[in-house]
């Protein structure tokens, strides 16, 4: 009898636990559904979370003039527990993945992922380009964060990678009290439309021998350009690439892009760089491996046009130096990305935004932890805190654009984790970096 009674109590307990779990899920779904101007659906996502949800926030195209119309902004939520912190992955583009990011895994947090306005599924029916500003995007993110803070009441951390890192900074500039801590990864802080610090970086990064091999490779490509153009034509037909700028200019741009890409990604060993006596086929194969021609292809440009518009009008970009190769190419000045702008849209750069953000970073910004890779080309325009010790910056020795906290040497990892522990007032198991 005792065994039967025990089994009965065990079954009742398990049923109660299952019911409690179902109630918690239902309660969360209900709470999310009750948020204003939001539609939500439970979906299959990263299974390391206890639940995964897709939300669509109705956002005004212009937060200062709601009558102008609205669009739907895609947001993903990976739920662990209401009592845990929330990491907000702020995207600079579209949402690339539903996987948990480094920070949410490190601190065992919930994760909110916000797609950037005007990218992929978060686009108005008609793109009003003048409403694609860092201020409007920050207001989008503020709306989402404030809505979810009604449900998740623990610590809040924003983070983003590359342009997502930039967007994280801009959101914090406009709404410094939205979150407790921010961790932008490899985020440029460009101060001009074509920031020439990029040129200075490429002239001094790494060692002299590697820089010489890179330049010699670029020269070899220019010298054999007549042999490379047919190879590009063949590739374009295979990949269905269209180049409005023409095959020759696409080739010129990609040869110039090679040095930027080499140091940005660090996935090409200097020993792999073909010598000047290499065949056109070997030169072309290496060039396409290091720097994809899709960057200059019409369909890809259309997909990334919101980025190019922002870069050329507000957040800054870079140009290609012509002078080191003027013997081989005939352009009167450095090559810019004006060809990527939407037709009929003016690309006048407004420096005031970046100047204001830069001043704030050097004076009032606090509890922002910046992550950079030393060799990454975008580190040329990394944030200069100018003595603001309320924030911290860590530069991974010889690191590339793929630098993450786990990329750092052990002692620097410990210092980063200690900083986060202090700012978040919580213990962090740094061993989780190894398993990430």
Automatic annotation (TrEMBL):
List the Pfam families. Answer: Peptidase_S37
Give the species this sequence originates from.
Ancylomarina subtilis
Signal peptide start-end: 1-23
The domain of life is Bacteria
Please list the GO biological process terms of this entry: proteolysis
Q: What is this protein called?
A: PS-10 peptidase S37
Asked if the record carries the keyword Transmembrane, the reply is: no
Q: Keywords in alphabetical order, please.
A: Hydrolase, Protease, Signal
Molecular function per GO: dipeptidyl-peptidase activity
The record's annotation in SUPFAM superfamilies points to:
alpha/beta-Hydrolases
Keyword presence, Transit peptide: no
């Amino acid at each position: 009898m005792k065994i039967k009674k025990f089994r009965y109590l065990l079954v009742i307990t398990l049923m109660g636990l299952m019911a409690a779990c179902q109630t918690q899920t239902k309660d969360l779904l209900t709470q999310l559904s009750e948020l204003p101007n939001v539609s939500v659906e439970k979906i299959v996502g990263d299974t390391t979370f206890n639940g995964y949800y897709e939300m669509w926030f109705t956002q005004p195209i212009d937060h200062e003039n709601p009558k102008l119309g609205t669009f739907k902004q895609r947001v993903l939520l990976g739920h662990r527990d209401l009592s845990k912190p929330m990491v907000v992955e702020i995207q600079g583009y579209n949402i690339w993945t539903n996987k948990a990011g480094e920070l949410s895994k490190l601190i065992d947090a919930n994760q909110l992922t916000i797609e950037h306005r005007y990218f992929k599924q978060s686009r108005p029916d008609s793109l009003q380009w003048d409403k694609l500003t860092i201020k409007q995007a920050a207001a989008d993110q503020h709306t989402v964060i404030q809505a979810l803070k009604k449900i998740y009441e623990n610590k809040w951390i924003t983070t983003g990678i590359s342009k997502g890192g930039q967007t994280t900074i801009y959101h914090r500039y406009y709404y410094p009290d939205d979150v407790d801590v921010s961790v932008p990864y490899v985020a440029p802080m460009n101060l001009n439309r074509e920031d020439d610090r990029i040129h200075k970086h490429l002239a001094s990064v790494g060692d002299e021998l590697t820089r010489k091999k890179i330049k010699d490779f670029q020269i070899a490509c220019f010298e054999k350009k007549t042999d490379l153009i047919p190879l590009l034509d063949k590739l374009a037909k295979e990949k269905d690439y269209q180049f409005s700028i023409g095959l020759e200019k696409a080739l010129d741009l990609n040869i110039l892009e090679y040095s930027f890409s080499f140091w940005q990604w660090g996935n090409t060993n200097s020993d792999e760089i073909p010598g000047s006596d290499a065949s056109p086929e070997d030169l072309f194969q290496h060039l396409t491996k290091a720097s994809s021609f899709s960057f200059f292809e019409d369909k890809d440009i259309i997909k990334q046009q919101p980025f190019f518009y922002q870069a050329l009008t507000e957040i800054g970009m870079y140009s290609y130096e012509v002078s080191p190769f003027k013997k081989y190419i005939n352009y009167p000045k450095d090559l810019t990305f004006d060809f990527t702008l939407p037709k009929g849209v003016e690309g006048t750069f407004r420096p005031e935004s970046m100047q204001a953000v830069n001043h704030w970073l050097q004076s009032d910004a606090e509890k922002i932890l910046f992550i950079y890779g030393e060799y990454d080309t975008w580190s040329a325009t990394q944030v200069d805190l100018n003595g603001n010790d309320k924030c911290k910056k860590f530069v991974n020795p010889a690191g590339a654009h793929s630098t993450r906290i786990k990329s750092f040497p052990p002692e620097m990892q410990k210092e980063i984790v200690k900083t986060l522990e202090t700012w978040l007032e919580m213990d962090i198991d740094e061993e989780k970096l190894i398993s990430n």
